[in-house]
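Workshop exercise sheet. Pairs work together: one partner reads the sequence aloud, the other fills in the structure field after running the prediction. Swap roles for the next sheet.
Pair: D.N. / O.F.
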Amino acid sequence: MSRRFVTIWFRYLKTDWLSRRQPSLLHTPFILAAPHHGRMLITAANIIAEKENIYPGMVVADARAILPGLQVFDDKPGLAAELLKAFAEWCIRFGPLVAVDLPDGLILDSTGCSHLWGGEAAYLTEINKRFYANGYHIRMAMADTIGTAWAVARFGKENRIIEPGGQLHALLSLPPEALRLEAGVIERLHKLGLRQVKQFITMPRSALHRRFGEHTILRIDQATGMKEEWIQPVHVVVPYQERLPCLEPIVTATGIEIALQKLLETLCNRLHKEGKGLRQARFICYRVDNKIITIEIGTNRASHHINHLFKLFEEKLSTIEPDLGIELFVLEAPKTEDLSPMQEKIWEGICSLENIRLAELIDRVANKIGATHIHRYLPDEHYWPERSIKQASSLEEKTNTAWRNDKPRPAHLLAAPEYIDVAAPLPDYPPMLFRYKGKLHIIKKADGPERIEREWWIEEGLHRDYYAVEDEEGHRYWIFRSGHYDQEKTHQWFIHGFFA
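Structure field:
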């Protein structure tokens, strides 16, 4: 399949934008202007002003002399780039690869897209109709190369669709400006009387290079297809992406679910064949009113399990408001990983971390409360309680250190010990009661002390004498005294954890 490109030229980009914001200007000649070396120069003129021979580059004072009733507005720096970027994102519904072509155009890689609209003519008609309905005057062309499509859109008079392989013939009658040449080269060509491409394109390469430079040769080769030209799309297409355009806009929740199910089936079947699974996925909905809605999910393990992924998305589908309808659905997986055969054995390892159903359960919980609220911990090689555990980065992370089970350890360990008031009768005896956050706890049972020395090779400080205690309500706590007991009671007591 030969590549096909569409270029869109916004003839009155900024003035059309202002007319949409102020409908009263639709039938009024006006311009946009900006200061340049102490003078106000016209940067854009609407179609009515152009009919009065007022064009960009003129001095505002001269334009007002021609048309006294001309309205003048200050140009906004960066407005064209901002508008084109927004239009490029909107045009993704017509093809995944869309690039901004400053100062007034877009480039679409439409390869394999036009048949979805019933052919190339219907494809261009639909794009033109949508922009015209929004108040923008555009000219378009389609060709095998970006250069030819650009030239025909701006300088062509009749046919806007150049048949495959017909780019050279389409260029012959156009002016040199159509090849996107440098201003100095264009001026030189006109001085030599070369006012059409056919008058110089067949000259010997050596003569063209000597007279007009390497850039001219490059532009000719790009336009004729002898050298490939690349575009920088506004959004890089991820390798794993599926699109579902709709013949009629989807306005119901059921329709959205069906679209998601179809896209998941297509994408997951592809991932399954390639031995991969997704870790992140985005479901993007393009609405008729130009708004784009996106919902995202993530998984703890690579997965191509359709039902599981659908359930993750299902909990967020209610946030999608179709409004007047959704005309394009896109499902993409920006992050994928190889899927090991062990992960596909769903019914093995029921009680292990390798059980895929455990990963899916965590995904569903994380989808509701957020992934940052779920943690997995592993033992670390430290005696000091705060350093004896570390947070795991994933379910797959392993450790060579075994969990300590010779001494009781709390299920919930505080990140930092908290001070408590304690009444203790004698040295090395457990306390009789303690007060924590204003509440008094009377101790009924206690076990200890267990002395834990500070890791002197890391930091210096006092040792701790830990007690596991139970209060009158049956709640169990892990508390400690910092340092030795003394009569002056300079030692302090802390609570460090809670047993289940």
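Discussion prompt: The chain has three domains: 5-143, 241-365, 412-498. What would you look at next?
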